[in-house]
Every structure is written in structure tokens, then in C-alpha cells.
């Protein structure tokens, strides 16, 4: 039986530094909401950092969608990645540039691997 990918970490942050010597990841500026004075607002840059495990050997596809509700989700990002073993922990660094939020609200996020839901969460966008 094939294992189902498991999510170990999901973070929204300003940056990720990978130490060239050790390969360790340093996460910079973790945040969970976005505030703006006026709308629409465009957030210039953020990173969605995931750590997953239990991914079968081979090629996989990560897909992240966003919307103001579960029925109007729009794909934001699709990318391939490879797993060497289900025992490995895979860090996926996803740069999100110029993401526009038309109005305040709780924006739903759906993270899928190989078209199977892994996480449903949200990011709050509020008026200052």
C-alpha cells in the first residue's frame, strides 16, 4: 500500500536562508495575517514553506490554490518535486510574488499533492 504524504510544517514567512555548509534552513519573519490600509492590496513577496514526509519514491506535483471561499478557488502555484524515499523530509520553498487581495477577508488556501488535499487553511487579510 502506498503511503499518503504527511505535512510536518506550513509557514508563511519573509524569507528562508539555507546554510551552504550544513544545509540547515533558517526561517525569517513568520507571519499569519496581512494588514492593509486600502484595498485592493498587493503583497510584494512572501514564502510558503512546507515540510512533508511519507511521499513515495519518484515525481510528485504540489498545487496551491486560493479563494474567498471553498467554491471559488483559483490555482496559484503548481510545481513538480521529487521524493527519494517515504522516510525523507522534503522542504519545499515556494516564492509568492505580487499576490493581490481585492478585499479584506479570510482567504482559503488549499494545498494538494498529486491532486489529493494535504491541508486546507486560511490567511486573514484585514484593514489596519
Would you mind describing this structure in some detail?
It is a single chain. By secondary structure, the chain is an all-beta fold. It has a single domain (6-127), classed as Immunoglobulin-like, CATH 2.60.40. The chain is 0% helix and 67% strand. The strands form three sheets. It has a five-stranded mixed β-sheet, with no helix packed on it. The termini are far apart. The mean pLDDT is 95.
CATH superfamily: Immunoglobulins
Average pLDDT, all residues: 95
| Percent strand | over 45%
How is the main sheet built? 5 strands, mixed
CATH class: Mainly Beta
End-to-end C-alpha gap = 50 Å
How many domains in all?
1
Helix vs. strand class: mainly beta
Give the overall silhouette. globular
| H/E topology pattern | EEEEEEEEEE
Strand order of the largest sheet: 4-10-9-6-7
CATH topology: Immunoglobulin-like
CATH architecture: Sandwich
Number of strands: 10
Unreliable stretches covering 5 or more consecutive residues: none
Annotation field: number of helices: 0
Radius of gyration from CA coordinates: 16 Å
How much helix is in the residues? under 10%
Secondary structure layout plus pairing:
Blueprint: E1 6-13, E2 15-18, E3 25-28, E4 33-36, E5 41-53, E6 58-67, E7 74-83, E8 90-101, E9 105-113, E10 116-127
Parallel strand pairs: 4-10
Antiparallel strand pairs: 1-5, 2-3, 5-8, 6-7, 6-9, 9-10
Features:
Immunoglobulin-like; 128 residues; 67% strand; 10 strands; mainly beta; 3-stranded antiparallel β-sheet; 5-stranded mixed β-sheet
In short:
By secondary structure, this protein is mostly beta strands. 0% of the residues lie in helices and 67% in strands.
Amino acid at each position: 500500500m502506498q503511503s499518503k504524504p504527511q505535512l510536518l510544517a506550513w509557514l508563511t514567512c519573509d524569507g528562508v536562508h539555507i546554510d551552504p555548509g550544513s544545509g540547515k534552513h533558517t526561517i525569517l519573519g513568520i507571519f499569519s495575517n496581512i494588514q492593509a490600509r486600502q484595498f485592493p492590496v498587493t503583497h510584494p513577496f512572501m514564502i510558503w514553506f512546507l515540510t512533508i514526509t511519507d511521499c513515495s519514491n519518484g515525481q510528485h506535483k504540489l498545487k496551491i490554490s486560493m479563494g474567498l471561499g471553498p467554491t471559488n478557488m483559483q490555482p496559484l502555484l503548481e510545481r513538480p518535486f521529487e521524493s527519494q524515499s517515504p522516510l525523507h523530509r522534503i522542504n519545499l520553498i515556494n516564492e509568492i510574488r505580487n499576490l493581490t487581495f481585492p478585499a479584506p477577508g479570510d482567504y482559503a488556501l488549499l494545498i494538494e499533492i498529486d491532486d489529493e488535499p494535504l491541508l486546507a487553511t486560511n490567511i486573514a487579510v484585514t484593514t489596519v
